Amino acid sequence: MVCPRIRLSKSQYIKGLQCPLALWYFKNRKDLIPKIDAAKQALFDAGHEVGELAKQLYPPGVEIKGKFYEIAKFVNDTQKEIASGASILFEAAACTRDGLYGRIDILKKANNEDAWELIEVKSSTSVKPYHLEDMAVQLVIFEQAGFSVETCRLIYVNKGFVKNGPINPPDYFKMEDLTKPVRDRQAAVHTKINELLTIIAQNHEPSQPVGSHCNDPFECEFKHHCWKQIPDYSVYSLFKGEKLQELIAGNICRIQDIPGQFALTEKQRIDINAYKKNEIHKEEQNIKSFLETLQYPLYFLDYETLSHAIPWFDKT
Fold first, then answer.
1. What is the pLDDT of residue 38?
2. CB of 167 within 8 A of CB of 154?
3. Cβ neighbours of residue 74 under 8 Å, at least 6 residues apart?
4. Which of 108, 129, 183, 266 has its CA 20 to 30 A from that of 33?
5. Are 89 and 64 in contact (CB under 8 A)?
6. How large is the average pLDDT for residues 294-308?
7. Average model confidence (pLDDT) for the chain?
8. Cα separation of 268 and 94, whole Å?
9. Backbone φ/ψ region at 221: left (φ over 0), alpha (ψ -120 to 50), beta
């Protein structure tokens, strides 16, 4: 199969859902794309480890391999393996005649031999709204590419799992059938695809103010560019939702410009007062009382740098 010029991939669709401007930058301003830092690479690596473990749920599967840019190879190899009788494929790829492209973590023959199951693997511990959007666009791509899809499933991490010896994948993972909510989104996906393709083709960047969407569901890779006029510590650091929108509507961004009568929680009040006075807020008696409850010797694991999706140690 000869792949057309790819106009929109699954990952680009998700990027555009979060912020159309981010998608436009990704397509038209490659110079703004930052290098991947160690923290982000660690997240990618953790997700890859979870994906590798999930493959053990479906032996013996055939993996479609290659460099990330070898789109035609991925699609052609997928078709070759299916023609050879493969019933389980990892990282199977599909593209449509109008340039939509996606890869699915696991492609599995359904009970109906003429149909397939689309299975995505996520390192989160619950089903998130963007997971549904992710699978919805995958369904559009694979069906338009000629696949008959019977079921859409999501595999994610069982947050109640505790390691005790070698990890047994069926215990570590949970699975949920998302076919109905994913199919319910099909009309909206088709509409959004057309909107995003129109935005990509613009010669000028779309207008998009900064906001909470810059961090939801992920921190945007272009935040360093869009937020360059925003102080490192601002109303975005303390507020969200209606309170944040109220301040932004009043053109208030700096902490020191928050009106004295603005409704605050106790923690926000402490935070703002400490900032304005340039003082550290200490509750020494509470700290002392807490320290007195500890029993030595103490052992420490820094959960911010040991945030592995797959536990390393028994009883964790």
1. 84
2. no
3. 64, 66, 91, 93, 103
4. 129
5. yes
6. 82
7. 94
8. 49
9. alpha
> Angle at which helices 20-28 and 10-18 pack, to 10 degrees?
130
Contact predicate 193/100, CB 8 Å: yes
Grouping H, G, I as helix, E, B as strand and the rest as coil, residue 264 is coil
The predicted pLDDT at position 302 comes to: 78
Residue 155 has φ and ψ, to the nearest 5°, of -105, 130
User: Is residue 281 pLDDT above 90, yes or no?
Assistant: yes
Distance, CA of 120 to CA of 118 (rounded, Å):
7
Rounded (10°) angle between helices 186-200 and 129-144: 80
- 32-64 per-residue burial string, b: 16 or more CB within 10 A, e: under 16: eeeeeeeeeeeeeeeeeebbebbbebbeebbeb
Backbone angles phi, psi at 297, to 5 degrees: -75, 155
Q: Give the CB-side neighbour count of residue 128, counting CA atoms within 13 A.
A: 14
- How far lies 313's CA from each of 46, 149, 164, 165, 299, in Å? 16, 39, 8, 9, 14
Q: Identify the DSSP state of 145.
A: T
Token couple for 243: 């309170």
CB 139 within 8 A of CB 182: yes
- In whole angstroms, what is the distance from residue 41 CA to residue 26 CA? 19
**Which candidate, 94, 100, 52, 43, places its Cα nearest to that of 72?**
94
Q: How many whole angstroms separate alpha carbon 46 and alpha carbon 51?
A: 9
